């Protein structure tokens, strides 16, 4: 798919690539800041969130007739700038002027082999433009993942997550995401378990 | 891309989809068992691992001239069976007979809208067959991610991670993954940081 | 009580014994998997559970006129196979075929001095046969401990533990365990504290 | 073994028993204080320690020709007073005058059915008298468990645990505990794993 | 303000000072014991509590017309003895005879430069005497901080914190602390957030 | 000391004050971001840091002949803006334009009784101006606290903290802080313990 396969990365490019993989390890250590505000002691990582968001993006995309692999791919990278910006919570946005994600990504891909750089730039750029069906699905996935996590925290006892549910729900664009959100709110985080124990058939 | 877009999921299908998203939440709570063996008190989640593995898969795929989105997509789902099987550590495999991942996935997609089910079956099946270039890249990504995490844990003080490094390294198939592993071992988890502070240019 | 006291363990046996003690350290790091399913972020260890189960076994045994030391002793070892099998949750049993605990223990005691091996084999074998009064008490202790822990998690906010309470309660065999379960459900995890502050006398 | 089996506990006794089981749950939440001094962020619980100490007591007792069930039984209860006294670290003993453990236990068993109370009093009393072979084995188990945990923490990176190793080693009384300690120090926490992967046979 | 500025500390004094700063690091690792009793898995540190208590002391002092810096200063040191005594929970006070805090501090300042020693002795002595307005404010701050933390834990799901609220409330002495407690109970831990998002103006 | 004592706060002011105390609770939940970069899994809170920084500020101030209460008071508030801005790590400062701390504090005190507002404004303003001796001591305390914590993390195994030590050391201004830093680096985090066990006298 690219002409890149003609040659291996040179030494500096290899260092850049290894550095990128270590840099993204920060997303496994950084926590989602909003949950700390909501009172969660040791919340999910940004990587945790991004993982399920990517899966959700693919599901929404299928239901919406969009390309699920592309939607998932964008979701995978949608918060990767946070290794450099951290996860800035809602309130902090009144006090911090942020750099556009495309420019952060530009810094992150400096020195990488051009095909890798182009791949990341492309995914981030399309996500930030918010126009392709896949970008819309990926953005809905970000919100729906947050809503579902909020329900899970609520079932763990946390009483302050309602604003995260409301805000996420209100931001959804696609009919499929809205239906999934309603269903997630109507049921709960362990409704699937008796079905699974029953072999996937509806419980009687 | 599918004929599915003709209609929204029926009620049972919606319940199945919401259930799937909650089920995958388990991967945010389940820890990677091997690290507990190695002595890590509260290690990364399976979702943490899957997130970076998917990114790595895309990078390896680009370098190998394979399709990065497909490779990342397979990586995303490569451990999703572990909601039902848990992450069985090496030693436990002497004592537990496992079900093939394809069959676990078959149970997981029961009752889902067929396009979603087909998407998951397809990703898992290709990954388990280990034949397409993308599957090979995704499998290497799983190993390389483990190696990189082991280095990170070693830098945090853990002295028992060498077997995880050795095993992961020995399992790599693609030249690109091997080069990245060598580079990751040669440098370390924070080598990228001074470069980043310097705007992406090599430090002097 | 054994003819073993004639001689100290030989070098290989010593290595085996030290290895056993380190191996059981895994039970302090492995978490009880079911609670992760229920939504507990960082639940009790298997060792935590086994400790209280052993105490409970002795209490039930006294009440039932059985040998409390034997019941506690079996409880102590009732999950020791999980260093090799992990704590397989309910759902995973559909997908994993397990090895009988007696055979796992057989591997664990290989190379140990025979009196130690016999002691472990004996405790595990009797527990798994489920016939002696002490084995019945120890098995009830396992369930009652789970129920009590579920109540404690419920008081910490967790709303999904009811199935663990129901299942544990339904599995109890002895009248004493049933009475203790009813009382534990009727009261709560801190009812004892005002009494203790009052010197052990009932509060007025 | 007791005349108690003639009748079920009366209501107040039942409340006392359920209270005891909840009270001992504190040992699953209380951490071993010394490790906090040594720099461990979230160390093992008192229950974690008591579990492995009880197993170790049985092993030492077998090797010493003592009764392993009795030794384990005493170990199980050797720190149960800490629900009321907490785990007082070495330095704090200069500042806090403690109550003898037998008297704490006396308060803990007040209102319990007499056979249960007698069982606990007996175990604690014998442990505190330090004269029977089983008590000596149980006391050595407490120290050896601490030493082994210190080695585990050292392998996790902690550099301040040597005093805990030295003090534990110096306190051991029985030849078997001393041999096990030497072996534990000579090997390490994961030496058993390759042997276990090899089916219990010595690695080549 | 002191004649101390004439000379730098001698070597032993420097060692003492560095030792003091490391010793106080224990307050960042020690947890507040009462919350473990209440069921909180990994509660706040003593340093966490002392920080907000000091801020609260200054606020109460301003409202009461007392010296806020002096009140905050005493609060800062009000639990520093716990590096040596640990945080003894209510129940443990039946079993442990404690040393007066002034005498613990006396040990802590031994070998320090006299001006530093005098500063710590003065703050602790005044706090323990409970007579100056600033000491009364600082003592109220200790209680009010506990009440506010209890409300926060309650909103995180913990159902057993009411006794901590009741006891703290009943112990308050100053009108300002009582008013603040009533207001804290009337509102909740995130009422301030919409106001802050609205720029500090009351929400409409 | 203020004319404020003439009257109690009005309702809106009370709401503002309670809100402030809850808002500062965020500093107990927010972690110090730099340590996450360095690889610490669950690092100290901002409140943890602020507590010890305030103590250190008072010690430095005494040694420097400045007012220790004022220095400690400024330290207490030196990171309170981070409830609104989060703890922005070094790298993020390339991407986020921050608001001056004085302006953040201005928002935080809006609606508070004027004497409280003035107190906070005063402490923050003086700290940010960096000119008074007490402000210099408080700023050194911030750096020295970071250095000491880095040493503690290094002793816990973390191998990536050297840049935090170097940067902190280089930023120190006062002779006393420099001497304390040298001594802290020369000794280590538990050197004080044998002395304390020995009653405060130098060990032999």
From TrEMBL, chains A, B, C, D, E, F:
GO CC, alphabetical: cytoplasm
GO MF annotation, one: metal ion binding
EC class: hydrolase
InterPro entries cross-referenced by the UniProt entry: HD/PDEase_dom, HD_domain, YfbR/HDDC2
Pfam families in alphabetical order: HD_3 (PF13023)
UniProt keyword annotations, A-Z: Hydrolase, Metal-binding
SUPFAM superfamilies for this protein: HD-domain/PDEase-like (SSF109604)
Claim: Cell cycle is one of the keywords in the record: no
Domain HD/PDEase: 42-156
EC number per UniProt: 3.1.3.89
The keyword Hydrolase is assigned to this record: yes
Annotated Gene3D superfamilies: Hypothetical protein af1432
SMART domains: HDc (SM00471)
Protein name: 5'-deoxynucleotidase
């Amino acid at each position: 798919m690219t002409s890149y396969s003609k040659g291996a990365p040179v030494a500096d490019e290899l260092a850049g690539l290894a550095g990128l993989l270590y840099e993204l390890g920060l997303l496994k250590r950084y926590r989602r800041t909003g949950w700390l505000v909501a009172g969660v002691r040791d919340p999910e990582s940004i990587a945790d969130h991004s993982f399920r968001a990517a899966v959700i993006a693919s599901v929404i995309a299928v239901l919406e007739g969009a390309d699920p692999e592309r939607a998932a791919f964008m979701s995978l990278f949608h918060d990767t700038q946070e290794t450099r910006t951290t996860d800035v919570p809602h309130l902090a946005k009144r006090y911090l002027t942020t750099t556009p994600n495309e420019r952060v990504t530009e810094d992150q891909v400096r020195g990488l082999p051009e095909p890798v750089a182009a791949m990341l730039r492309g995914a981030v750029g399309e996500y930030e433009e918010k126009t392709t069906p896949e970008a819309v699905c990926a953005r809905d996935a970000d919100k729906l993942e947050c809503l579902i996590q909020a329900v899970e925290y609520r079932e763990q006892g946390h009483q302050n997550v309602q604003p995260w549910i409301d805000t996420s729900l209100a931001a959804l664009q696609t009919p499929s995401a809205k239906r999934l959100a309603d269903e997630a709110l109507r049921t709960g985080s362990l409704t699937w378990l008796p079905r699974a124990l029953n072999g996937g058939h509806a419980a009687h």
